[in-house]
Amino acid sequence: MDSIWSKIEKIAEENHGVIKTSAVEAEGISRPMLRKYVEEGKLEQVRKGLYVRADDLADEFAMVQFQSSKAIFSYGTALYLWGLSDRTPHRFDITVPQGTNISRFKRDNPTIRCHYVQPEVYDVGITEIQSPQGAIVRLYDKERCICDLIRNRNKYEVQVFQTAIKEYMSSKDKKLSQLIVYADMMGIRDEVMKYVEVLV
Length: 200
Prior knowledge:
The protein has helices spanning 3-14, 21-26, 31-39, 60-67, 75-81, 103-108, 119-122, 142-151, 158-170, 176-186, 189-199; strands spanning 19-20, 43-47, 50-53, 72-73, 93-97, 113-117, 126-130, 136-140. With 200 residues, the protein is an alpha+beta fold. The chain has a three-stranded antiparallel β-sheet with strand order 1-3-2, sandwiched between helices. The chain has a three-stranded mixed β-sheet with strand order 4-5-6.
């Protein structure tokens, strides 16, 4: 019985298949052991410092957040995770506070779209949801997503914009009072109220 491999498998089970070098080292396992398992075909390196078992399908959502604790799924990616868009994201949208140095993260993930916001609104509406593969990931709540959508409506295709607004306004779990609080914070109350008054 390979006790080291058992420890690595336990790390993978606890992290939705993602094995981080730092988690392995915390268990007293050296980096050369990771290389050994890669050479044996048991592990696959998917990013710098991140591995998956060779027979596992990597959870891309989980991997992004393992690489950057500041990355919050937002915009089109968050709309997809909430079921407000049927467009499967080919590029992940993430938001980080202005001034965050994520140059290495961006280099390792060239297809990611990064959005920078003032630190005082970065925390507004952060919550968690399960990714399609079951990992718990951080994203903005529906109300924050709708505010971001309305504030940046010129950057969205008309169909994506209209679908998200209609899906949200017709949903049973919408929180209009929260939506208006966020709209006030972002200085877009009048624009948001136009949609609320027409569609609710």
